[in-house]
């Protein structure tokens, strides 16, 4: 009798094992696909932001070293090679206007972007944002070919582009958060977040190819690339596991007296109510990490927008050389993001990992400004220590907080939480380049003092969370991965 039962159950057991194997393989395959796809999307976003920092040193040059065309009727020997209106003595202020036109619009729009992202299809939202970002990036470059010399044109383009760029971050983090659990989230998102630095590197290299000959193409080529990825998103993005192609849904195995059978089960859609803005602010840790990111992003974006010009002025490199050298900061950022993710996964201390890297970044910035302007190694270290905490907060921390246990399984908070954290950080991203433009008149040393002060303030804002994590490690409170007890 026992042998007969075994023979009856064996085919069903084999079928279940085969189905489970196929299910796991399918899930891993789609997770990898989404990871690569969203990586490409946000690489394109950052790729299209970078050209302005490379082109600055071409819009206002040292004309005494430039070769003057023989047929050129010169009225001013000092500014004949500059692009109006950036040929004036206050050109750094005008560059600050361009930077902040983008960044202020980005910061304001980010707070609303997450709310929209929770309520509309992420696929449509991302596709629209990338295509429109491509359009406005190309329009900036067309100013070269249309011979446009009015500041309001370029500033207006920057404002509109900043609003369109807000569609990216909350949506891609929500997509990745929908596909990956918390177990190795720090490492996975640390690797994945290298798209920021990869985009900056590619944007610098592409802009550098055209900057000395036709700087308009430094914008048009990245604009076409991000618009193309928008089309790719429309056709291929799968927002969550519930949208996997038919035939790859999880199964339910039922056991009855009459035998064993498998039954396909459609994944139920999440009909939970989207979280409010104030509700997201009440999640433990959101306010502290948001304010910390404000100062961390102030430092990162000051480097993003001003590092090539700093290298050009201090090390006396031309625009292309300065742009190429600045990519080392982003290479360091890739390594720093991965290291931060690994350390926070291993220790369970997201706040402590950020705190340690920020503390180390302050003296490294001081040393780089005084002795390491041409040091490749110091630039790599600065990139890793500055961008590591920034990468961790905007990825794994945001995903952890957006799926916090106090939400009781509500999966529609991730985009809003991400938008609040990154939106607050974007205020710092707007202030950093603005202050750099104003302070640089009195010397680059003062700019670096500002950056060091911002790092110290970011550390102070994380003090409470670091204290809680250390108490957990010492056994005073239960240790938890992520933010279950914060």
From TrEMBL:
Similarity remark: Belongs to the major facilitator superfamily. Organophosphate:Pi antiporter (OPA) (TC 2.A.1.4) family.
Protein name: Glucose-6-phosphate exchanger SLC37A2
Main location, first listed in the record: endoplasmic reticulum
Phylogenetic classification of the source organism: Eukaryota, Metazoa, Chordata, Craniata, Vertebrata
Catalytic activity from the UniProt record: D-glucose 6-phosphate(in) + phosphate(out) = D-glucose 6-phosphate(out) + phosphate(in)
Gene that encodes it: slc37a2
Membrane topology type: Multi-pass membrane protein
UniProt-recorded Gene Ontology molecular function terms: glucose 6-phosphate:phosphate antiporter activity
Claim: Transmembrane is one of the keywords in the record: yes
This protein's GO CC annotations: endoplasmic reticulum membrane
Annotated TM spans: 6-25, 32-48, 93-112, 124-146, 152-180, 192-211, 217-238, 286-307, 327-346, 353-371, 377-401, 413-435, 447-467
Domain Major facilitator superfamily (MFS) profile: 37-471
Any one GO BP annotation for this protein: phosphate ion transmembrane transport
Localization, UniProt: Endoplasmic reticulum membrane
Keyword annotations from UniProtKB, A to Z: Antiport, Endoplasmic reticulum, Glycoprotein, Membrane, Sugar transport, Transmembrane, Transmembrane helix, Transport
Gene3D superfamilies named in the record: MFS general substrate transporter like domains
UniProt key word Zinc: no
């Amino acid at each position: 009798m026992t042998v007969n039962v075994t023979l009856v159950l064996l085919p069903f057991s084999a079928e279940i094992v085969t189905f489970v194997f196929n299910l796991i393989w399918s899930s891993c395959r789609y997770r990898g696909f989404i990871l690569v796809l969203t990586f490409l999307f946000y690489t394109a976003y950052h790729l299209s932001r970078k050209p302005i920092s490379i082109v600055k040193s071409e819009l206002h040059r040292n004309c005494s070293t430039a070769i003057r065309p023989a047929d050129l009727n010169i009225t001013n020997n000092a500014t004949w090679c500059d692009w109006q209106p950036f040929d004036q003595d206050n050109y750094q202020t005008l560059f600050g206007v361009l930077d902040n036109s983008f960044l202020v619009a980005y910061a304001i729009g980010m707070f609303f972007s997450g709310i929209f992202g929770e309520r509309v299809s992420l696929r449509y939202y991302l596709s629209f944002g990338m295509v429109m970002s491509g359009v406005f990036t190309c329009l900036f470059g067309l100013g070269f070919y249309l011979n446009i010399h009015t500041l309001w044109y370029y500033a207006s383009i920057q404002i509109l582009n900043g609003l369109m760029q807000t569609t990216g971050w909350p949506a891609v983090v929500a997509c990745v958060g929908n596909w990956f659990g918390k177990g190795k989230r720090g490492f996975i998102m640390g690797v994945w977040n290298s798209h920021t630095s990869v985009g900056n590197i590619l944007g610098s290299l592409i802009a550098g190819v055209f900057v000395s000959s036709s700087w308009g193409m430094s914008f048009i080529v990245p604009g076409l690339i991000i618009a193309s990825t928008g089309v790719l998103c429309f056709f291929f993005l799968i927002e969550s596991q519930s949208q996997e192609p038919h035939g790859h849904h999880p199964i339910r195995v039922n056991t009855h007296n009459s035998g064993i059978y498998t039954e396909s089960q459609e994944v139920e859609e999440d009909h939970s109510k989207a979280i409010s803005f104030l509700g997201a602010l009440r999640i433990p840790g959101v306010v502290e990490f948001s304010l910390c990111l404000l100062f961390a992003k102030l430092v990162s974006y000051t480097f993003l927008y001003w590092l090539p010009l700093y290298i050009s002025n201090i090390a006396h490199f031309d625009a292309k050389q300065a742009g190429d050298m600045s990519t080392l900061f982003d290479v360091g950022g890739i390594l720093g993001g991965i290291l931060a993710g690994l350390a926070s996964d291993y220790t369970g201390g997201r706040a402590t990992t950020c705190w340690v890297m920020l503390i180390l970044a302050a003296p490294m910035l001081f040393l780089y400004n005084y002795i390491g302007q041409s040091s490749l190694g110091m630039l790599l270290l600065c990139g890793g220590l500055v961008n590591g905490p920034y990468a961790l907060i905007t990825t794994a921390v945001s995903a952890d907080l957006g799926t916090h246990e106090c939400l009781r399984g509500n999966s529609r908070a991730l985009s809003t939480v991400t938008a609040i954290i990154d939106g607050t950080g974007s205020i710092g991203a707007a202030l950093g380049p603005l202050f750099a433009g104003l302070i640089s008149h009195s010397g680059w040393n003062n700019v670096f003092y500002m950056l060091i002060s911002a790092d110290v303030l970011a550390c102070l804002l994380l003090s409470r969370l670091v204290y809680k994590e250390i108490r957990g490690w010492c056994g005073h409170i239960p240790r938890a991965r992520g933010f279950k007890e914060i």
